[in-house]
Amino acid sequence: MDMKRKKTREVHIGALKIGNNNRIAIQTMWDRAISNPQEVIRSIYDLASIGCDLIRFSVENADALTPLGIIQEHSPIPLVADIHFDHKLAIGSLEIGIPKIRINPGNIGAIWKVEEIIKSAKDHDSAIRIGINGGSLPVAYRKIDDRVKGMLEIIDSYIDMFDKRDFMNLVVSMKDSDPHVCYEVNRIFADKYDIPLHLGVTEAGPLIPSITKSTLALGKLIEQGIGDTLRISITGPVRDEIVAGKELLKALGCYDDGIRTISCPKCGRAGFNTHKFIEEIKDELEKVKENITIAVMGCAVNGPGEASHADLGITGLGNEVVIFKQGKIFSRVSKEDAKKNFLQELNRIIDEKTDN
Ligand code: SF4
């Protein structure tokens, strides 16, 4: 799909560039303690290997700064420090080299405290995200019909504050748990400003409700060229947020890379358990960077035919499985050997693509 992105300012977060025509960056947020930096760094490498571009950490007190500095030093992707209330924590995060902080100026307090944060971000060449959520608006705006208006009025005043201090390395987010509010507030904002937007439906629920709501709001925005980074907020594993973000961007035609999966839901005709097989190979698939379409089909009646454009496919045939390429049967193996043979063939295709 030929999708025209809305032109926004380029913002840099360490080596990562967002806005302008840069790829939409996928973010997540760390969900545990950081007392063991080595363990966190290992997890970040894993998340980066499946497509995570940026990871945010809550900074609750000054004790978090030392481990956070170590994590940033060894992380393959930039970190974002999420700060509420305490401007000293924001400045402390910038001083240890965190390339982006997220604040809500409304809860930082006096304006001179925000000014000090802006000055420090300039000194350290870091980015700031102003993030406001519908749920934390003043009481006068809490009703659903008032939240769009409320967020836009408040964000106008914050942007004015940053503009007057000539701070350009700025990102904005306006999130809500209602996807319609999210859509509307970001659509109106994007018409008025060229500041990069971080998109997300906040507190979106467990996997299925979250993906449904996020796709509704973010899908419509991204199709209109709006959005420079995103997070699919899930009450569940952090890894799922990255996978969901990537799948959304692939479905929208924004990402060329990675596996496209065709798999049938299986029915009474199935001679092969597609659910189990997908579960067994999903970790391997998430790491693939090459643009490859695979098919996992339950029966040979419909399988190879319906997935004839897949680079690689598998389906049940009696007590065995057949592996096919572009609709043509390539080999026939026992069900026990299905995973090994399928992944072997997938790796061969990846090698061919890498060599070309
Ligand atoms: S491919 Fe075969 S098993 Fe899968 S849903 Fe279709 S008919 Fe059923």
* Fraction in beta strands: 15-25%
Q: Strands of the biggest beta sheet: in what spatial order?
A: 8-7-6-5-4-3-10-9
Q: What CATH first level of the largest domain would be assigned?
A: Alpha Beta
In the residues, how many domains can be counted? 2
Unreliable spans are none
Q: Architecture of the largest domain in CATH? A: Alpha-Beta Barrel
Summed up, the helix count is: 11
Q: Which sheet architecture does the biggest sheet show?
A: 8 strands, parallel
CATH superfamily of the largest domain: Dihydropteroate synthase-like
Rg from Cα: 23 Å
The sequence of SSEs as H and E is EEEHEHEHEHEHEHEHEHEHEHEEEH
Shape: elongated
Q: What name is given to the CATH topology of the largest domain? A: TIM Barrel
Ligand kinds: iron/sulfur cluster
Give me the count of strands.
15
Measure the end-to-end span.
Answer: 24 Å
Task: Determine the mean pLDDT.
Answer: 94
